[in-house]
Specification:
There is one protein chain. The chain has 13 helices and 18 strands. Helix 5 packs across helix 6 and helix 5 runs antiparallel to helix 7. The protein has two domains: about 375 residues, ATPase, nucleotide binding domain (Nucleotidyltransferase, domain 5); about 40 residues. It is of the alpha/beta class. The strands form five sheets. It has a six-stranded mixed beta sheet, with helices on both faces. A five-stranded mixed beta sheet has the order 14-13-12-15-16, sandwiched between helices.
């Protein structure tokens, strides 16, 4: 196996944020101790080409991506993209203490109880958040961040990128890309709880960070389009006119004062969902205090949204600046242009700090080389790049440099263990259960319970095994 050096120069990628209303692309280059923007582009996507995160018109989306890259400023063809919505599952789980190798072999068993899809239909990745301790007084558990996305959705997004003549090498999650951009520009803040709220055209991504670690994420299926549709419905306007009026531009037959009550009513609906998210978080967290809300996304600029958010939750609200510590060439980007693109560039900036061929870890201190799992079956040997020490440390890589479905060796091990009986010494004393055996036993118990609870489930299971 080839061992890639920790200091080997990795290739930069273009961060490509494929939203429901526009495509945004950012390419960053290392500059001293930080980054500078080497290229930026954005192109609108025709209405209804992407609905609720699902690509409906792939050709139209691919054409928008192709137009973004018509600029000669982009030097690389390799792209990092991201997903969100109900086809993506992000969950923090507790598992019995085990080694990285044992976790590698048992994660598919463990994941099945947390993922509402067939495990064969998803790409899966994970990150150890807290490795626990083997000390006698420890709880004997470890915290793992589990991330899964439906293969079909990944294929849709990588397909339009390929159709546009680019090469997808990383598929991340919107909420984590947002966090990468935040850490790059604001650093890690101990003893604080930060809410990253990205309000896009069709969805709101929320990532709650406590002490530098993501502890809760949620996607809300409301965004700027919901405001536009409400204006369109209440004032009987075409969609294009309603969009302009929402942004404060004058249109025939209505004034901005006419639209303000509609915008306020929709903001109330959005804040109800935000309140639910905060309630979910506080019900499971050790603290109910939120230090600050960082606001990004085009819909965050809706009249009165930021002010109402701050008043409702009695929490400071700050506009997220993805170029706070990223250099923008003043000759290429005027002050007005910077102000215009900043609200919608956060996800693309977070994706652009990723690198082709490396993996970044989601812990406050990066593991040493000896602690990195040696994943030789169907995966690259992954090393963190030194630049990841400052940003981009979120793990999730759902294509290329990650688990592309369950490894064949894992399938063989799983089938072999399904019918395995617990081992015993000849004296009758049981052998100490390993995490892998315990995982298989838990899986077998769940399957047996499901079979008992659902008539016919056992027969279906046997049919699947025979197939």
């Amino acid at each position: 196996m080839k061992n890639f050096s920790l200091f080997k120069k990795s290739r930069s990628v273009v961060g490509l944020d494929i939203g429901s209303s526009a495509v945004k692309a950012v390419e960053l280059k290392a500059s001293g101790k930080g980054y500078r923007v080497a290229a930026y582009g954005t192109e609108p996507i025709p209405p209804d080409s992407i609905v609720d995160g699902a690509i409906i018109d792939g050709a139209a989306v691919a054409e928008s991506i192709r137009r973004v890259f018509e600029s000669k400023a982009f030097k690389t063809k390799e792209v990092a993209a991201s997903l969100s919505g109900n086809a993506v599952i992000v969950k923090k789980i507790s598992l019995p203490l085990m080694t990285a190798t044992e976790l590698e072999e048992s994660i598919y068993w463990e994941a099945e109880q947390y993922i509402p899809f067939d495990i064969q239909d998803v790409n899966l990745d994970y990150q150890i958040l807290d490795g626990g301790s083997s000390a006698p007084d420890s709880k004997g558990t470890m915290e793992v961040l589990l991330v899964a996305a439906k293969k079909e959705k990944i294929a849709d997004y990588t397909g339009v990128i390929t159709q546009a003549g680019r090469t997808p090498v990383v598929v991340d999650v919107d909420a984590f890309a947002l966090q990468n951009a935040y850490e790059l520009n604001y650093g890690l803040e101990p003893n604080t709880v930060i809410v990253l709220l990205n309000a896009g055209a069709s969805a709101i991504n929320i990532n709650i960070i406590a002490n530098g670690q993501s502890v809760f994420t949620r996607d809300i299926s409301l965004g700027g389009n919901a405001y536009t549709e409400a204006v369109q419905r209440e004032l009987n306007l075409p969609f294009e006119s309603a969009e302009l009026l929402k942004k404060g531009a004058p249109v025939d037959g209505a004034t901005f004062e006419d639209v303000l009550p509609v915008l306020r009513a929709m903001t109330e609906n959005v804040l109800l969902e935000v309140q639910k998210t905060f309630d979910f978080f506080k019900a499971t967290a050790s603290t109910d205090q939120i230090s600050r809300i960082m606001l990004s996304g085009g819909a965050s600029r809706v009249e009165g949204f930021a002010e109402t958010l701050q008043e409702r939750f009695s929490t400071p609200v700050e506009m997220f600046d993805p170029f706070r510590k990223v250099t923008l060439d003043a000759k290429k980007f005027s002050a007005d242009m910077r102000e215009s693109i900043a609200p919608t560039a956060a996800v693309a900036v977070g994706l652009a700090v990723r690198r082709a061929g490396d993996r970044c870890f989601a812990s406050t201190s990066l593991p040493s080389q000896g602690e990195i799992p040696d994943r030789t079956e169907g995966h690259r040997f992954l090393q963190p790049h030194p630049l990841c020490r400052r940003a981009g440390r979120r793990l999730v890589v759902l294509v290329a440099a990650a688990h592309l479905g369950r490894p064949r060796s894992a399938d063989r091990r799983c089938r072999a263990r399904e019918n395995a009986a617990p081992e015993h010494h000849s004296t009758g004393r049981p052998v100490r259960s390993t995490p892998r055996a315990a995982s298989a036993a838990r899986h077998a118990h769940r399957r047996a319970s499901q079979g008992a609870d659902r008539p016919g489930a056992s027969a279906r299971s046997n049919q699947q095994s025979a197939a």
